[in-house]
Structure formats: structure tokens, C-alpha cells
Amino acid sequence: MEPEVLLAGSIDDSFRSRLKAEIGILFPMLILRVLENVLQPSFLQKMTILNLLDKIGGNSQIIIYIFVNYDCDVDSPNILERVVNGLLKTSLRPPSGSTTTLSTVQDIFLRHELVQCLVSIIKSMGAWMDQQLKIDTATLEQHRAYKIELQKGGSLFNRKPFKGIEFLINTKNVGNSSKEVAAFLKNNTAGLSEIVIGDYLGEKEEFALRVMHTYVAF
């Protein structure tokens, strides 16, 4: 999958390039630096970062863009992985013997916000996967409908060749030019009878003659 595809239509190539560079600086220096500081958290800093991550996590396009352009790029750091790991580690209680400046209320509230961020990211990933599944399903349905019409047209062609060609052209499974019909007959992907193809090409009807001349020229 090409990274450029993900934000196509929303930002141009030059902005995409700058965005990747800026994310590569913003996340490690600001977001991850605060998020991964588990032992000595600043409540205000943590909450600021969590509010930002909650907004980012709710946008599946941004989450997938980060995942593809960093975590799936061999030349880039795993930013989304570090974000998720940072959220998970911070949501756990500090290691035994460590100290924290957080009050009990702050600690509870912080963990609640951490879980919310994780949920937002998971939902965004799930929404994107659902969308991809819908696209894939729609594509499969289109292929299936095409095959059914192709088989129907092939069966009709074997009984009534002119009617079969007319059906296939009307359903846009075959182009309406003599060259496209000749190519279809030549490829014979619809179970057409070789005898009926020969009969059709031997017809004196004008269009069939043009198809025959193109067919022979292939």
C-alpha cells in the first residue's frame, strides 16, 4: 500500500511530505517524551497530551496514515506502536518502590483518560478495517455480478449469437466496437461454442463482417 493513497483527495503531495516530517519530530519530542515518562508524570502535561491523543485517535484517517507511514515504513520509527505501548504502560500502576506526585484522584482520572485514548485508537483502526472490508465485499459482488452476466450472455450466444452479443454489449460486459467484440470472441472467457463463433464470423451481416476481419487480423 502506498502512503500517498491514504490521504488522497484531502491534502496534496507537498503537504503530505511536510506532514510526515513534522509528525516525525512532533511525536518523539513532545507526545512520546511526556507519555513515556512513567515514573515522574506531570498531571497537567499528561492530560494535555492525552487530550491531543484522544482527538487524533478519533480520526481513523490520521491513525492509519501514521501507521502506514511510520510503523510500516522500514526507514521510519514505530510511532503508533510507541503511542499504544506508552498508553498501556502508563495505565498500569508504577513499579514497586517508585514514587509518584499524583494524588489518588488524579491517578484515577488519568487512568480513565488513558483507557479512553486506547479505545479511540482501537475504534479508529476498526472503522478503517470495516471500511476496507466493505470495499472488498463490494468489489467481490461486482466481480460476481459480472461473471453471472457473462455466463448468461455466453449461454445466449451459443443459442442465438446475435442476441448474445447484443446482450453483452447492452450490459456493458463487452464494448460495442467490432474490435472489442472480436477480442471477446478471441479470448472466449464465457464458454462460447467454437462452432457458433465460426458460424457468427461467417455471417454476411455488416457488423459481423467487421468483427470477422478484426478477428482474423489478431
Automatic annotation (TrEMBL):
Pfam families: Sec7, Sec7-like_HUS. It comes from the Eukaryota. Keywords: Guanine-nucleotide releasing factor. It is a peripheral membrane protein. InterPro entries: Mon2/Sec7/BIG1-like_HUS (IPR032691), Sec7_dom (IPR000904), Sec7_dom_sf (IPR035999). It comes from Gossypium arboreum. This is Brefeldin A-inhibited guanine nucleotide-exchange 2. GO terms for molecular function: guanyl-nucleotide exchange factor activity.
